[in-house]
Design a protein that fits this description.
Blueprint: E1 12-15, H1 19-23, H2 26-38, E2 42-44, H3 54-58, H4 62-75, E3 83-85, H5 88-101, H6 107-117, E4 120-122, H7 123-129, E5 139-147, H8 157-166, E6 169-173, H9 188-191, H10 193-209, E7 214-217, H11 220-232, E8 239-241, H12 242-252
Parallel strand pairs: 1-2, 1-3, 3-4, 5-6, 5-7, 7-8
Helix pairs in contact: 2-12, 5-6, 7-8, 10-11
């Protein structure tokens, strides 16, 4: 996934909560908002927002995906501010895959989608590469294993997340093998559950082998999948969205 050039920046932003935050990880969304406010953002939350369209797109149902994408563009159409998303996969869907979904559209429609793509940022990428944040600060004595999701490859997210985690006093980033896909892949895990689980087991085993205190990522979807695999096997899997880690560290350091 490759973000567009010349993306729109600024401290007045829109926040896209994502389906998983809405349904399961409200605490991750809350922590994301706390972090954004801490670094000076004025946040707008459009009530009409729903899904990014990824489930339909990944299933090959481009017609349905286009409808959902266009609804999202219209839901955030009240202004031209950045759209910040606490999910690498949802962000990549809107700044990269949406262009594929509309590649054969009429020029005015495609240009509308392409312009919206320039507004979309994954949260860590936005903090470091749009706002210029150098450190989270705070304190957290923890050995942390970081999972970089497939959709964040070739984006600014992995390095931004590494930079911010390393800025926390007491954090040690754990190294482990097979830093690849966890097997989730959205609808892939539904259509091919056995294959998805086999890939996930390899990822979970490799992460747990480095004995982390926390497993973190910029995607709740990957963490949900890994946590489910670990739980079914009777394994402890202390997974947290990276913004939950940031908030904990900042609270420990008296910064929140």
């Amino acid at each position: 996934m490759t973000p567009p050039d010349n993306r729109i920046t600024g401290k007045k932003i829109n926040f896209m909560a994502t389906c998983l935050c809405d349904a399961i990880f409200a605490d991750a969304a809350e922590c994301s908002v706390q972090i954004l406010k801490k670094f000076g953002c004025d946040i707008i939350f459009p009530e009409g927002q729903t899904c990014c369209g990824q489930p339909a797109f990944n299933s090959g149902d481009f017609e349905s995906a286009r409808k959902v994408i266009m609804h999202t563009i219209d839901a955030f159409g009240g202004n031209d501010y950045p759209v910040v998303v606490p999910s690498g996969s949802c962000a990549a869907m809107l700044f990269d895959s949406a262009l594929i979904a509309f590649k054969d559209a009429d020029k005015p429609v495609f240009e509308k989608v392409a312009h919206f793509a320039r507004r979309v940022w994954e949260l860590n990428d936005f903090l470091v590469n749009a706002l210029g944040v150098e450190k989270i600060g705070g304190k957290l004595k923890a050995r942390i294993a970081v999972h970089n999701s497939c959709h964040t490859k070739n984006t600014g997210t992995p390095e931004a997340m590494k930079k911010l985690l390393e800025s926390i006093d007491g954090v040690e980033l754990a190294q482990y093998n097979a830093d690849g896909c966890c097997g989730f892949g959205g609808t892939f895990s539904v259509v091919f559950p056995q294959l998805s689980e086999e890939v996930g087991i390899k990822k979970v085993d490799n992460i747990l082998a480095c004995k982390p205190d926390i497993i973190t990522a910029a995607d709740t979807s990957c963490l949900l999948h890994q946590y489910g695999i670990a739980k079914r096997r009777g394994l402890e899997y202390p997974a947290k969205h990276v913004c939950q880690v940031y908030v904990e560290a900042m609270k420990n350091g008296g910064l929140l």
